Input
Amino acid sequence: MKEDYILEMKNITKRFGNFTALENMNISVKRGEIHAICGENGAGKSTLMKVLHGYYPYGTYEGEIYVDGQLLRSANTADSQKTGIAMVYQEINCLSTLTVSENIFSSKMLYNRIGLVDYKAMHKECEKVFQSIGLDIDPRTLMGKLNTSQQQLVMFAKAVREDAGIIILDEPTSSITKIEVNNMMEVVRKLQKDGITFLYISHKMDEIFALADRCTVIRDGKSIDTVSREDFDLGKIISMMVGRDIGAVYPKHTPKIGAEKLRVENLTIPHKRVKGRNVVDNVSFMLKTGEILGFAGMVGAGRSEICNGIYGSLKCTSGKFFIDGKEVAINNVRDAMSNGISLLTEDRHESGLFLQDKTVKNNLTASILPRLRQGMFLSKQKAAAASNKMMGELQIRAESVESRVTSLSGGNQQKVVLGRSLLAQPNILLLDEPTRGVDVGTKNQIYHLIYNLADAGISIIVISSELPELLNICDRFLVIAEGTIKGEMSRDEASEETIMQYAVQ
Amino acid sequence: MSGADRKTVHRRSPDAAKEFLLRSEMITVYVMVVLVVVTSVLNPDFLKVGNFVSILKQYSFYGICGVMLTFLMVSLAFDMSLGNTVALSGCIAAILMRDFGMSFWVGALVAVAVGAFLGLINGFLHGVLKIQAFMATLGTCYVYRGLFWVLSKQASVECGNAVKASGVPSSVLGLPTSIWVLIVLAIIGHIVLKYTKFGRSTYIIGNNLEVAREVGVSETKIKVILFACLGFIAGLCAVCFILTYGSIPPSTGAKYEFYVNAGTVIGGCSVYGGKGTIVGSLIGTAVMTIVQFSLRSLGVAPGYQNTVLGAILLLVILIDTVKEKKKM
Output
């Protein structure tokens, strides 16, 4: 029997230089179904959707996409929109100082007979669309006055009005509250009844189980399998999601764990924009001397936020910190640094390597300038000595400490950032994705370094989205999801499956 | 209206009036009312017709520039060289009228053409070369001012005869002609900003460039057109000035960038773009003009006048910024 597929992706391969993000991806979506796509961090979900939405134009990837049996040749996102593919991004792109109806009509407004914008007609049409999908929002309201979930629903309405047959939802629940999630799901179901097909990208199993008709699991850029609703099974899907290849890059290590070093109690950090939602919700845990503690979980679960909370760079509404059993106040980064806490940030370009066009030396010594003083002025000798020492210890490959940081390879840039954290001589080191964008050889060096630091009595927290990496370097694990600790396990208890089970809750 | 009685979450609330009265821009209106009352009590001359007319004249110049500047503010740009564009274009026209026997009408054409050209330079610097609007126009501000001084030899350029010869009245129905120009311009400006594709595109680029790209609105094109139009309107303002006073004195255009920019911000334009209306800017510039005149009537020393005006602007921008921060 031939199925009625509205969308077929055949053998999609997408490469970025030597890196293959998608490899022979095959997904077929039936007309009118809600098709979930799930996979681990970095499995290729976002890349796939960008290919589909025309962000990567036809020709920059291999393979074919058929919409209604027609080959899709999008040169840009507008072309994809014309064929009826709409995408609602995680971060909503809207015109916040204009009205809801103007947002709905932003690509083409309605004009009256003499060529002026016809607001009445737009409001009316808008209300009609809202009514049909059961939305109760005044089209005259300013978009900026709506909350994230309402904005999201308005974007649905926009897609509906533009006759989109397929709506892609990219992690739609990442910044809305629980009640709003239910509301959104209702709208999705209603639209499905009207014949709209959904692609629902998520790693939250409960949502997928509640909503999806079928679910395709992808891993390492490959489509593993598509499961129908009747066969949904948590264990089965998780086992499909995990199981990446692990090379022999992990050195052996016997931990020397001492007494409690850091204790965090009831840490709560509110969401930046969404009122009533916490990115970190009442988290308590402790870290021992010389211990390597791993924060596992999905991107956006609140792992980085916990670290930033400890580092004083995110304001928390509640939270107590104890170092060596004594309570300390950490209100800002300076407090954290004076308590011996150092953070290696997740994205070296955005926040880590802030001296983009400066030298290796400038970057290495940026956080310890007061210590390099000679009288009133900065001592060149001291700065050079400190940088040279770090360059040697970390084997940073650069011509000299005077080389520009941007001339270094990604791995060496990462070492520079790490070097800066180390020069501050921390007792507690927070490493947020320490091996991101780093080649295998450098990864190995970084692992060795982490072990050496732990052996020297430094307590370390590691965040990594690569589960195998985390499993191999950490002594203990906390699984974070939705801003809370969902599970804790020792090295012996932990496996990819057990961690994922907590992480996708 | 069928929709009026339907129960909705975001219908306009009956508190709309209250909300309006508490808006940040309204604070300056209150300041103005208090100032006007105080001034009238302390100096009854303030309420005299003659004073009223001079306020109106000054207001019309600020207002004319303010209407067009609103477009720029909405698109997230602004112009420091505004006053000097007025001065330079007016000065060139006035010299042509005085020394070369050009008629008022030809002179007026020259003024708007020069203004449009000067605006185009700003537009090129900011729109095409993407230099920050503040820095680009601060630079041209000094270039234009310098040229103005060179050409005018820092003396008043008299061209009253040409104006008289043209027979254009300096007031119509008891109101300065420039006020009528402002009224016509404001109506056109309001319609263009609110009801045309161009006007709405201005909001889109001031709001979110990502969306602008998605819906195919070119930021460069709109910015260049807007700056050229602002230059044109500055030229028109210079023509009104010549018509009103029959000369271009060295002080022409001084502090326009402050009064007009401040006026639009007080009138609801956001320094973060995407916000603003013509009506708001008209009110805002009116407030700034009246405050300026009352401070003068009260005999406040110029130094203090500047201090008060600057403080008012900072206060309004502060409120705007706090609001924007809250949204983040």
Q: What stands out?
A: Chain A has three domains: 5-242, 246-340+426-505, 352-424. Chain A has a mean pLDDT of 83. Chain A is about 30% helix and 25% strand.
